[in-house]
Amino acid sequence: xxxxxxxxxxxxxxxxxxxxxxxxxxxxxxxxxxxxxxxxxxxxxxxxxxxxxxxxxxxxxxxxxxxxxxxxxxxxxxxxxxxxxxxxxxxxxxxxxxxxxxxxxxxxxxxxxxxxxxxxxxxxxxxxxxxxxxxxxxxxxxxxxxxxxxxxxxxxxxxxxxxxxxxxxxxxxxxxxxxxxxxxxxxxxxxxxxxxxxxxxxx
Length: 203
Fold this sequence. Notes:
By secondary structure, this protein is mainly alpha-helical. It is built from nine helices and no strands.
């Protein structure tokens, strides 16, 4: 990318971020974003094909980090448990993810959680719950086959529990709490939910 185009692109990113954070995707104006960046609307479309393409550019790098963290978390936790290392399930948790991935990308996750209505990301939390719910149900079956006393739970019940937990974990982001305050609240959430997860999984 030529230098001048790169510089223009780098003006658009903060301008678009502020527009979406203030107004949400549906109410955001490409004309306003262009004005914030010191461009014409036509100049904006030389960088992004449409408004959702611009929104995607703001959240996809953070999502890539998030998905990589979650994949490694699943590999270590579920993989370890299925190999008999049940403590591996609890060696890292979503608080680590919030601290290591979400807060360094706070604006991107606030966009995902608060401003994504009308985009393909608008069901981010529900999609995340559904994906990991199915994964967890499969792990439960395998653990039971190994003799681990996993409690019987319906898919609907697990969905409710995982939705409550996941929503709670992201609440400090929704409320834009500073990191120290977020970690304090997340520790309270962990202390509330963790005994229940241990009881449910029998390990």
